[in-house]
Write a structure and sequence with these properties.
By secondary structure, the chain is α/β, with parallel strands linked by helices. Helix content is 40%, strand content 17%. It has two domains: 8-33 and 308-414, Aspartate Aminotransferase, domain 1 (Alpha-Beta Complex); 50-304, Aspartate Aminotransferase, domain 2 (3-Layer(aba) Sandwich), CATH 3.40.640.10.
């Protein structure tokens, strides 16, 4: 994390101007200005997104794709334009490869079921990392129970990083799939996805990447990564909740069976059976979250006006400052690497239960997250039942970091 807040690319950053676009940041909690540091869970929304949602419901509210009246045509145009924007954000070769879902969790469940039931058989092996979110563990356990596949875990090293040599040792002739997080929601670790994909490709193994934490905070190019699938969410990048996407290689998606049945995903239905619509509609049964897609498109527009490279540089610099200030505190233990990482920082304060700490900070207007962060295998490896987590986004400030660190000092003295 060599970028600093004094670097030229960061000096030009006008964070106060950006904050003016986020209404929810300008409120008080328990009589104090809100310091929102729970961005790994969900981010606040810029006014452009809120306005896009309102405009759809006030002017274009209709179902998509089949209507011939003006509202339906406008809704469809807005919905598909959003797909184009989200696909372009990750440099997808075609927007037809981008499937709208309810979020990263649904995207990963879709893959486990549709890919698993199409290509995996009893005895096949799926490799997960030890730092996965439950959304990338539980669906594979369900497939294990349904299909008889084997789920194996790639253990991490001290410091919260992965060693490719361990992966090599795990791979067997029955390994069919590696499913892994790009960036840990607990440790902030940025995993070596490019190297994993290159290794897997040589062995004809497919790779699924959970991009829930990475796509909102850094440039992501699916071609450069070399993965076969990428799952991510709107709400972690300023978009609406209940909205996500799955990108997959067209040739694989075409061979996968549908995840759900219903309207929109069919070509024809008779009393004898059904045939499927083309991509992406084959995997989008029923009325989609139209407003959510349009709002997500507005969030992507907003990010593009700032620039993902600039967002990444600023977040890296601010995270480095946060780690520096927290490391100077007595009785604070930080989890995860200090380099090559994202802006989610898990920690514990000696002698203070994380739940007590979070409630204490809330009374000072500081919002952080506490718990196992839907990553219990990782927490077990760390030897913790719960940690506290502060997570930054591009609208956070150095002053907010100072307020947070001062609140930790006050908590330490109080308890």
């Amino acid at each position: 994390m060599k970028e600093t807040l004094d670097a030229p690319s960061v000096k030009a950053w006008d964070v106060q101007k950006i904050r003016e676009d986020f209404p929810s940041l300008h409120q008080q909690v328990h009589g104090r200005p809100l310091v929102y540091l729970d961005n790994a869970a969900t981010t606040q929304k810029p006014r452009r997104v809120i306005d896009a949602l309102r405009h759809y419901y006030e002017h274009d509210n209709a179902n998509v794709h089949r209507g011939l009246h003006a509202l339906a045509e406008r809704a469809t145009a807005g919905f598909e334009a959003a797909r184009e924007k989200v696909a372009a954000l990750i440099h997808a070769p075609s927007s037809h490869e981008l499937i709208f879902t309810r979020g990263t969790s649904e995207s990963l469940n879709l893959l486990a079921y549709a890919y698993g039931s199409s290509f995996l058989t009893s005895g096949d092996e799926v490799i997960l990392t030890e730092m996965e979110h439950h959304s990338n563990i539980v669906p594979w356990f369900l497939m294990r129970d349904m299909l008889g596949i084997r789920v194996r875990f790639w253990e991490m090293e001290e410091g919260g990083v992965l060693d490719l040599n361990r992966l090599n040792d795990l791979i067997t002739p029955r390994t069919r799939l590696i499913s892994m997080t790009h960036m840990s929601n607990v440790l902030g670790t940025r995993n070596p996805v490019e190297q994993v994909c290159a290794l897997a490709r040589d062995k004809n193994i497919r790779v699924i990447v959970d991009g829930a934490q990475s796509v909102p905070s850094m440039p992501v190019d699916v071609g450069a990564l070399g993965c076969d699938f990428l799952a991510f969410s709107a709400h972690k990048m300023g978009g609406p909740t209940g909205m996500g996407a799955l990108w997959g290689r067209e040739e694989i998606l075409k061979e996968m069976r549908p995840f759900m049945g219903g309207g929109e995903m069919i070509a024809h239905v008779s009393k004898e059976g059904a045939t499927w619509a083309g991509l992406p509609h084959k995997f989008e049964a029923g009325t989609p979250h139209i407003a959510g897609a349009i709002g997500w498109g507005a969030a992507v527009d907003y990010i593009e006006t700032i620039g993902m490279e600039a967002i990444h540089a600023y977040e890296q610099a601010l995270t480095a400052y946060l780690l520096q200030q927290m490391s100077a505190l007595e009785d604070v233990t930080l989890f995860g690497p200090t380099e090559n990482r994202g802006p989610a920082v898990s920690f514990k304060l000696r002698g203070v239960h994380p739940f007590d700490l979070t409630q204490f900070l809330d009374q000072l207007g500081v919002a952080i997250r506490v718990g196992h962060h839907c990553a219990e295998p990782l927490m077990h490896r760390l030897g913790e039942s719960a940690t506290a987590r502060a997570s930054l986004y591009y609208y956070n400030t150095r002053e907010e970091v100072d307020i947070f660190v001062d609140a930790l000092r006050r908590a330490r003295d109080f308890f």
